């Protein structure tokens, strides 16, 4: 039995679909308030919460292999600890944890520091483990960057000229699925990146092609981003964490940790990693389909 913790996430949901397609028995940890409508047919739901350790033994019972992805939270380290402890007590044969590229308990940014602390705790536990450390998600471009383009065709970020080896979440899920089902050795760390390190000027050029109009990127001060995120209703913790991550990217520059490109996706899955161009093409097709449907529906409506 495979237990997926974090099944609502992009990586977790793609992982569940892969395991189901491969005929594997899958169980998903679900909080009471979430519901289970997002789970594919045949996936068992078990109620539990990483913030409530007493709820985890039932979820872990009989689960030999566990995937652990904890969304960004001020309590992220403790939530991971709770899951790792539960897996150890249940005698799990393998735990695959989703971390972050450059995870380091001594890092300045919150995300890298907390993931580094959780990775270290897993290493020191008695649970056989493998760690995946994905770069920034390519999906942020269609989901966050494109909606942020203003009337002049400009988007803004505090990334300077840094290069980031952005990765498609489906490729991260594919790597995790292979690791869960037997690829590789225990006690290993797998940095998962896309096929190239992109600057936001590169992103702007690709968006110009995909959208058919000139798009430009403008670097802005950290304070401006803080103000914008606060205006969107993000908590002070999340705002500081996001701004801090991009400060790390700026420190990484054009050739640092964030720009590293690995062959992990190809080596583990046998398939090359997806590109931003491909993802933008998919997004364009998805947006065009409802428009066409809407036009046809309008044509059938009475005048």
Low-confidence stretches: 290-303
Question: What is the count of helical runs?
Answer: 11
The percent range for strand residues is 5-15%
Strand order, largest beta sheet: 3-2-1-4-5-6-8
Can you give me a brief rundown of this structure?
The protein has 303 residues and is α/β, with parallel strands linked by helices.
Description of the structure:
By secondary structure, the protein is of the alpha/beta class. The chain has a domain at 2-134 and 169-192 and 261-275: NAD(P)-binding Rossmann-like Domain (Rossmann fold). It is 45% helix and 14% strand. The strands form two sheets. Strands 3-2-1-4-5-6-8 form a seven-stranded parallel β-sheet, with helices on both faces. A two-stranded parallel sheet has the order 7-9. It is globular and about 55 Å long.
Give the tags.
11 helices; two-stranded parallel sheet; alpha/beta; 303 residues; Rossmann fold; seven-stranded parallel beta sheet; disordered C terminus
What is the secondary structure topology, with strand pairs?
Layout: E1 2-5, H1 10-21, E2 26-30, E3 44-47, H2 56-60, E4 65-68, H3 76-90, E5 94-98, H4 110-124, E6 129-134, H5 140-145, E7 154-157, H6 169-180, E8 188-192, H7 200-211, E9 216-219, H8 222-231, H9 236-252, H10 264-269, H11 276-300
Parallel strand pairs: 1-2, 1-4, 2-3, 4-5, 5-6, 6-8, 7-9
Helix pairs in contact: 1-6, 3-4, 7-11, 8-9
């Amino acid at each position: 039995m495979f237990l997926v913790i974090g099944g609502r996430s992009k990586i977790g949901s793609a992982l569940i679909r892969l395991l189901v397609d491969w005929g594997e028995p899958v169980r998903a940890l679900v909080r009471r308030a979430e519901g289970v409508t997002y789970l594919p047919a045949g996936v068992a739901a078990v109620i539990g919460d990483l913030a409530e350790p007493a709820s985890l033994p039932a979820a872990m019972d009989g689960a030999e292999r566990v995937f652990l992805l904890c969304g960004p939270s001020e309590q992220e380290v403790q939530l991971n600890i709770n899951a790792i402890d539960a897996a150890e007590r249940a005698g799990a044969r393998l735990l695959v944890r989703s971390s972050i590229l450059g995870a380091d308990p001594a890092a300045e940014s919150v995300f890298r520091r907390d993931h580094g602390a959780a990775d270290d705790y897993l290493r020191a536990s008695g649970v056989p483990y493998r760690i995946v450390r994905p770069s920034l998600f390519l999906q942020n471009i269609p989901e966050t960057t494109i909606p942020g383009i203003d009337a002049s065709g400009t988007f803004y970020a505090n990334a300077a000229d840094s290069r980031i080896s952005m990765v498609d979440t489906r490729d991260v899920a594919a790597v995790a699925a292979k690791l869960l089902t037997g690829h590789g050795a225990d006690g290993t760390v797998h940095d998962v990146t896309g096929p190239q390190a992109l600057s936001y000027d590169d992103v702007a050029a690709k968006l110009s092609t995909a959208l058919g109009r000139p798009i430009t990127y403008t670097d802005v001060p950290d304070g401006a981003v803080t103000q914008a995120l606060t205006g969107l209703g993000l908590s002070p913790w999340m705002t500081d964490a996001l701004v801090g991550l991009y400060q790390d990217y700026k420190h990484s520059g054009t050739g640092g940790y964030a720009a590293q490109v690995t062959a992990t996706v190809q080596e583990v899955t046998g398939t090359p990693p997806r590109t931003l161009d491909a993802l933008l093409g998919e997004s364009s097709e998805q947006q065009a389909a409802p428009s066409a449907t809407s036009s046809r529906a309008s044509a059938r409506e009475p005048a």
